[in-house]
Design a protein that fits this description.
Strand content: under 5%
Radius of gyration: 16 Å
Distance between the termini: 49 Å
Oligomer: single chain
CATH superfamily: lambda repressor-like DNA-binding domains
Structural class: mainly alpha
Helix content: over 70%
Protein name: Helix-turn-helix protein
Largest sheet: none
InterPro entries: Cro/C1-type_HTH, Lambda_DNA-bd_dom_sf
GO molecular function: DNA binding
Length: about 90
């Protein structure tokens, strides 16, 4: 890496790094579910009443996912994208 690039990476605040990392974790989970179900981004768009271009934007990592959006995606896919400790303990019962 160039020194300029290294400095730019170093200057990114930790909270921004963590948010971007979480965003990509969500995208990876959505992608895995779509692949497992043999679905495309177009299929997800149709289920959600969205344009495919909007889903594509989400999947590029430029979208800031809200809880509302995550909930709508989970409903459309019929699967959890994010497991919280409470979700996990309910599933074990």
């Amino acid at each position: 890496m160039t020194k300029l690039f290294e400095q730019a990476i170093h200057d990114i605040p930790q909270d921004v790094r963590e948010r971007v990392s979480l965003n990509f974790d969500i995208i990876d989970q959505i992608s895995a579910i779509l692949q497992r179900k043999g679905m495309t981004q177009r299929d997800l768009a149709n289920l959600m009443g969205k344009r495919e271009s909007e889903i594509s934007k989400w999947m590029r990592g430029t979208h800031n996912f809200t809880l509302s959006t995550i909930s709508a995606i989970q409903k459309a896919l019929g699967e959890k994208i994010i497991d919280t400790p409470l979700n996990f303990s309910k599933a074990k019962k």
